[in-house]
Write a structure and sequence with these properties.
By secondary structure, this protein is of the alpha/beta class. The chain contains 9 helices and 10 strands. It has a single domain, classed as Rossmann fold (3-Layer(aba) Sandwich), CATH 3.40.50.300.
Length: 252
């Protein structure tokens, strides 16, 4: 097994960022960073702004104030496809595969930055299949026929096709059994060992903090905590809000 890379200098930096979703302000002066080789957990109750932050970084939502840089260059004035070319990729939450397309077609879409170089596209496909060997024999199967865990693996594989330097994963475990979640996190860990920095939004706080180097806790569009996961585990005032929100959702 490949050893984890050493954690280096910050590669992604969001400074004093405000974001609006429609006419509603969702962020208030957010500061956020990810270092090279690092795994960062992004936590908080539903509606805290976790997914919105990922969308702002990936260019889906504009920044009303502040700036976002990656490897020292501005991202917040770029289109989403150019951000992917720079090496920043978002894995969407839920079942984000293209259900009506085959596994092979989903992978080719993930590698669209290589679409004019067939040799490079073939090389990247072979590389990704080394991490997800079960896909190789099912390339003509429609993605919509896969189980929930298999669809999430396909999402990771599709994102990995663009050879990302930073992968942002939104709610990987949504609706999945804990054993499946552990398998998915193992795959993400291997991607990190290959040099990809990771941001993960995760509903299972215990798994996320065991998995991550650092954590951010968002509440009402503001950072309430950032630091080592072990320190967050001591913040009962924050973790209680996540637990109570989960109980309330389960009772609906």
């Amino acid at each position: 097994m490949t050893e984890r890379p050493q954690i280096g200098d910050p590669i992604l930096v969001a400074s004093d960022v405000d974001v609006f979703y429609g006419k509603v302000q969702t962020f208030y002066g957010i500061d956020f960073e990810v270092r090279e080789g690092e795994i960062v957990a992004l936590l908080g109750v539903n509606g805290a702004g976790k997914s919105t932050l990922l969308r702002a970084i990936s260019g889906v939502l504009p920044c009303a104030r502040g700036q976002i840089t990656f490897e020292g260059a501005r991202l917040d004035d770029l289109e989403s496809d150019e951000i992917v070319r720079r090496g920043v990729v978002q894995v969407p939450g839920g079942r984000g595969t293209f259900a009506g397309l085959t596994i092979g077609e989903n992978l080719r879409l993930g590698g669209y930055i290589f679409r004019r170089d067939k040799k490079a596209l073939r090389r990247e496909t072979e590389r990704v299949l080394e991490y997800f060997p079960w896909l190789a024999g099912r390339m003509d199967q429609h993605a919509g026929t896969l189980s929930g865990g298999e669809q999430q693996q396909l999402l990771l594989a599709r994102a990995f096709m663009s050879r990302p330097k930073l992968m942002m994963i939104d709610e990987l475990s949504l609706g999945l059994a804990p054993i499946v979640v552990e398998q998915l996190l193992s795959l993400v860990s291997e991607m990190n060992r290959q040099g990809t920095s990771i941001v993960i939004v995760e509903q299972h706080v215990d798994l996320a903090l065991e998995f991550a180097d650092r954590a951010y806790f968002l509440e009402k569009g503001e950072v309430r905590f950032h630091g080592p996961g072990a320190e967050l585990l001591e913040r009962d005032d924050l973790l209680r809000s996540v637990f109570l929100a989960g109980v309330a959702e389960a009772q609906l």
